[in-house]
Write a structure and sequence with these properties.
3 helices, RmlC-like_jellyroll, five-stranded antiparallel β-sheet, Jelly Rolls, 10% helix, 186 residues, six-stranded antiparallel β-sheet, mainly beta, single chain, globular
């Protein structure tokens, strides 16, 4: 497994080794020891995953920016198993030197990359193809009363969603989410 560091040290991209031949391919989609080693080598806490989620989105669906408030904050290890998505994580940790900064990565069914997003980050993505299927491993259970959202196009954050030519589909909740300043001053 190859580990790719990003401009925000806690956000890591994992590229699995793919073993392919005329029959198809094989990969380890998750290995606790390899994941733990990658985090420990960088001085990060190793989480326990407690829940897996699976979503399907049509081309142009934008979900996010979502997070859960303490004490129900979630870390997420995300990947796309079918289709393509432009995935984003935003640092919402007030005491962080990278507060308000974001990292993006394209996740798709060809590269099988995974994106590690620890607790303290808001997360969102836009589906770039129909039938984009997203898998999430989470470090905490879903807790409805702790669910929060930041508006996807917040000017303070300034995410370049690379959506030119896409007709966006955004649900009511995400379209009326709080601004970054409102969400992080609460």
């Amino acid at each position: 497994m190859n580990v790719i560091e990003t401009k925000i040290p806690e956000l890591l991209i994992f590229e699995p080794r793919i073993f392919a031949d005329e029959r198809g391919w094989f990969m380890e989609s998750f290995n606790q020891n390899a994941f733990a080693k990658a985090l420990q080598e960088r001085g990060f806490e190793v989480p326990t995953f407690v829940q897996d989620n699976h979503s399907m989105s049509s081309k142009g669906v934008l979900r996010g920016l979502h997070y859960q408030s303490e004490p129900f904050a979630q870390g997420k290890l995300v990947r796309v198993v079918q289709g393509r998505a432009f995935d984003v994580a935003v640092d919402i940790r007030k005491d962080s030197p990278t507060f308000g900064q974001w990292v993006s990565v394209e996740l798709n069914a060809q590269t099988h990359r995974q994106f590690w997003i620890p607790a303290g980050f808001a997360h969102g993505f836009v589906a770039l193809e129909n039938n984009t299927q997203f898998l999430y491993k989470t470090t905490n259970f879903y807790h409805k009363d702790s669910e929060r959202s930041i508006i996807w196009n917040d000017k303070t954050i300034g995410i370049d969603w690379q959506t030119e030519g896409l007709e966006l589909i955004i649900n009511e909740k995400d379209a009326h989410a709080l601004s970054f300043i409102q969400a992080t001053n609460g």
